[in-house]
Amino acid sequence: MGGKDQWGSQPGSARSPAFAGGAVGSNFEELRILLETQMVGIVESIQSLLTSIRAGADMQTLRKHMDQIAPVVWKVLQSTENSMQQPGNETLIERGGWIVANLSKCLQSMGVMSNEEEEPVDGPADKEFRGRLASLAFDLVRETKELVRTVEDIDSKSQIMSDDSLR
Q1: pLDDT at 137 over 80
Q2: What is the rounded CA–CA span in Å between residue 78 and residue 166?
Q3: What are the GO cellular component annotations (predicted)?
Q4: What is the per-residue DSSP string for 31-77?
Q5: Helix, strand, coil percentages, rounded to 5, for the chain
Q6: Nearest to residue 70, comparing CAs of 50, 46, 53?
Q7: Cα end-to-end distance, the chain, whole Å
Q8: What is the rounded CA–CA span in Å between residue 23 and residue 56?
């Protein structure tokens, strides 16, 4: 469970079985809906992770939480990147590119932490590890929320411009 099987051999090669069917969110409306929906799952999963961290959970439990978060974040990243590749989405590239980069770094860091060998596999995580993981969890939520806000803003502005062009 978890570890290298879930994350791949390289920290940047996390894969999501749920995303194997292809890209989601080829337009802003689809992307906005997907991000809003996935945001709920990410927040709930991270809240569970933080509860386990505060309770002093063992590494196996923490890895289970990390392995539940990774595919959802991966789907968000892939869907956003797919939308960035669509013609006419230069604003998303300009405003969302740095957020996607930050979110990707967070996902890679979580993969590295999930694969850390120095921590006991089944024993309790040390305080330093739990602190780094909690900080990373907050970063993931912050970056995901920022991405949702950015896409909502771009989507609402494009709808306003579209409404104005109909007049």
Answers
A1: yes
A2: 33
A3: actomyosin contractile ring; cell cortex of growing cell tip
A4: HHHHHHHHHHHHHHHHHHHHHHHHTT-BHHHHHHHHHHHHHHHHHHH
A5: 75, 0, 20
A6: 46
A7: 57
A8: 37
124 DSSP 8-state letter: B
C-beta separation of 69 from 110 below 8 A:
yes
CA dihedral 111, 117, 119, 120 (to 10 degrees): 120
**Is pLDDT larger for residue 23 or for residue 69?**
69
State percent of the chain over pLDDT 70.
75
Domains annotated for the chain, with CATH where assigned, are 27-165 (1.20.120.230)
Element at 158 (helix H, strand E)? helix 127-165
**Sequence letter at residue 9:** S
Return the axis-axis angle of helices 90-114 and 127-165, rounded to nearest 10°.
160
Q: Tokens at residue 89, please?
A: 């989405």
Whole-angstrom Cα distance, residue 72 to residue 74?
Answer: 5
